[in-house]
């Protein structure tokens, strides 16, 4: 395996000497990888990014960029591009002057600056706006210029701190794909910070879920969504039904899980899994209206709420003490209305056991 381009080694950050905003961070990022730091406000993700950028110094630990220890190196000597949520563009400069700024402070020659600015603007499809004042650009256009400015000096790593947070939903989704395509086409190494779960799943090679300054789980979007290792990740990443439960029997890769309200459901589980208490996770889309095998758990429930969304209907149901959220087909022969009785089926392979 090749040496990582970025390494956080035993990195911690505290502002008051007591509370660790980032706690013993261990993270390696490969050349060309798109890694997202995902978590709620105050979880340590932005502080981690700022320490890599050089705007914050770790309290303990070491940050490596390739073979260089950059822990105490000033930001301008790290060759890292940064895109902020507010873009941080200079209002007194036009587009080309903003994009040229990182090259000017690096004392690049005028001819080379002109060529590299033109190339950077072409990357984000903003060549026609080179002479436009910044205050005459839309939010999406300003975001593109901020990205061009971060790329113009060909940095080793590009850091993005909630860069799409100020955009409306449609433009945000469009820019997610634009950034992902740039990453793929240019082979960029990207460290991206967001609190938006869908954004993280859409764009990333790997996602690191932060909580209380600690990475709770890191892996591919599929791994985190389908196999959360603990209750926080299960509840934070997308819609999920999460219950307290106890694995009371496990044999031949199948288990019986008793939920807090007394309901028993079937689950797959690795052979080495021991009985005991778990967080039981079932994604709403895994709950079905029909049975395909005898191993499935059947639940007869009453619909408490039904929300039609076109291709799907979200229903909240109750069976005894058990409440579930299910995402069912929008077109169905089964009546999906408040108060109706409904039979639902859950396959054991869709019941995931995580630590509490």
Question: How many angstroms separate the termini?
Answer: 34 Å
What's the structural domain tally? 2
CATH superfamily of the largest domain: P-loop containing nucleotide triphosphate hydrolases
The name CATH uses for the topology of the largest domain is: Rossmann fold
Uncertain residue ranges: none
Beta strand %: 35-45%
What do the pLDDT scores average to?
A: 92
- What is the CATH first-level class name of the largest domain? Alpha Beta
Structural class: alpha+beta
Strand tally is 20
The number of helices is 8
Q: Percent range for helical residues? A: 10-25%
- Computed Rg: 24 Å
Corresponding CATH architecture of the largest domain = 3-Layer(aba) Sandwich
Global morphology: elongated
SSE sequence, one letter per element: EEEHEEEHHHEHEHEEHHEEEEEEEEEE
Largest sheet: 6 strands, mixed
Strand arrangement across the biggest beta sheet? 6-7-8-3-9-10
């Amino acid at each position: 395996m090749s040496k990582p381009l970025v390494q956080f080694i035993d990195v911690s950050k505290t502002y008051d000497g007591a509370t660790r905003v980032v706690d013993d961070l261990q993270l390696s990022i490969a050349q060309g990888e798109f890694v997202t730091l995902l978590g709620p406000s105050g979880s340590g993700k932005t502080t981690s990014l700022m320490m890599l950028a050089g705007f914050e110094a770790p309290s303990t630990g070491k940050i490596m960029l390739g073979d260089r220890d950059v822990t105490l190196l000033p930001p301008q000597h790290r060759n890292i591009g940064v895109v902020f949520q507010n873009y941080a563009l200079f209002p007194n400069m036009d587009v080309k002057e903003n994009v040229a700024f990182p090259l000017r402070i690096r004392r690049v020659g005028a001819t080379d600056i002109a060529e590299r600015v033109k190339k950077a603007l072409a990357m984000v499809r903003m060549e026609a706006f080179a002479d436009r004042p910044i205050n005459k650009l839309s939010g999406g256009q300003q975001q593109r210029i901020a990205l061009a400015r971060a790329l113009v000096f060909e940095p080793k790593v590009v850091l993005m701190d909630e860069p799409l947070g100020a955009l409306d939903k449609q433009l945000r989704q469009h820019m997610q794909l634009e950034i992902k395509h740039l990453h793929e086409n240019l082979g960029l190494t990207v460290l991206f910070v967001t609190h938006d779960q869908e954004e993280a799943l859409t764009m990333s090679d790997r996602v690191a879920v932060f909580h209380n300054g600690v990475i709770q789980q890191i892996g591919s979007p599929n791994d985190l969504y389908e196999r959360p290792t603990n209750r926080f990740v299960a509840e934070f990443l997308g819609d999920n039904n999460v219950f307290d439960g106890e694995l009371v029997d496990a044999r031949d890769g199948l288990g019986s899980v008793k939920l807090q309200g007394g309901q028993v459901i079937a689950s797959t589980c690795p052979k080495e899994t021991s009985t005991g208490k778990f967080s039981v996770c079932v994604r709403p889309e895994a709950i079905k209206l029909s049975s395909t095998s005898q191993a499935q758990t059947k639940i007869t429930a009453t619909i408490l709420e039904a929300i039609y969304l076109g291709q799907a209907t979200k229903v909240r149901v109750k069976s005894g003490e058990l409440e579930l959220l299910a995402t069912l087909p929008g077109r169905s022969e089964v009546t999906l209305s408040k108060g109706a009785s409904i039979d639902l089926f859950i396959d054991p392979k869709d019941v995931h056991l995580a630590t509490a």
